[in-house]
Amino acid sequence: MRVSKAKEFTKTFFNIIDLIFYSVLFYYFLNLQYEDYYPVKMEIPNFTQMLNAHYKAFIISVFFWYIIANNTKLYGIEKGTSFFKIILTSSHQVFIFIPVLFTISGLKQLPLFESSNILLFSLLIFIFIVITRLMNRIFFYKEKNNNILFIGKNSRSNEIKDFLLKNKLGNIYEISSSHEEFMSVFDSYVKNNKISKIFIVRFNLLPSDIVKHLLNLCEDYQIEVNIIPYSINDNIVAYGINYIKGIQVLKIKRYPLDEEINKFIKLLVDKLISSFVIVFIMSWLYPILAILIKLDSKGNVLFKQKRTGVNGRIFDCYKFRTMHNDGTNSIKATIINDNRITKVGSFLRKTSLDEFPQFFNVLKGDMSIVGPRPHMISVDEQYSKMINRYYFRYYIKPGITGLSQVNGFRGDMNEENMNDRIRTDIFYIKNWSFLLDIKILVKTFLVVFKGDENAI
Fold it and tell me: Looking at the whole model, is its pTM more than 0.70?
């Protein structure tokens, strides 16, 4: 099956022109920085000197641009993409990229760009992306003879046809995949209607002689071939191809974090954030809280508890100690007005500061920054018998914060609350995206600053 050359060309083309525009813009704003913001006595360097001084910042920023673009599907924008989706995708890309620019700029001895210039830089990129994608979209509608043939049909093929017709993406033709009709009709459809693309439903059910004839004819006439697989599971996200001794094997990719690139992005963000917090926050916060905890009550500063991690693996979860140790802390869940909680512990819980040692868990690889909260083993044993698909929440690494927590499903562990937690955790796993993690982190910061009424 031939991959659409036009689609690949479009993707490559936008990768190149975006990189060129970004490079020119980057150099232009560096010149502005030297001219308007750096010390007066500083001589403006030539291009080679500027390149030597800032090439690392440029490479890092470009690297993160394409990492983010993979998540926002920026280079998945096609010629028929709606105006609204172009605006939305471009906004997501630039919105997430702005903090990256601020971070890179702040790491330099002198700021790479002033704050106002970073915002202007981002605005110009946004305008460029929207204009170039809209031009591509307009060009698409001028294309002629975009005739599409469907062989066979099912509910999924009907959805695709409706989309193509609604967006005026081509003229639709249909024929049955039965052997008798197909052999007599297919050739004339291809030749007389100038078919440019075909969609085959249930490809594996076609007889081998039809498959051979179909592919040979499509190759002769340079026709793009697409297959619409049948799935009984609506939760399936995509299919991937594996090769075993040169033989193609179709692999079902059920959820976003089954994708290797998504795993890499989440792992990279985990390591970067946890390292930053440990070096720049925990280095001074830990001693202060340790002194307060010690002055308030007897016992260790840190509390270790066995909890369930990814794939059911047990690990030691770290927290600042917030309770008097009566021997039940590892087996008895916290309740409202729990008399085990210390005065300092109450404050730590309300502000979620007690969770900060878990950044060490993230650095070790036991946890993620965002994910379903890990429960005590006793809680797992209790609720796994009551709630369907309870253990599905351990399909990925547990998190310091999560979608359930920022939606208020934390605190007292009653059955209704736990049902809401599990339902939300499953939604997070099925719908994970880098943007969703960012939203959860932003909500978490707001909760930390104003305090959480549901915390106990």
Answer: no
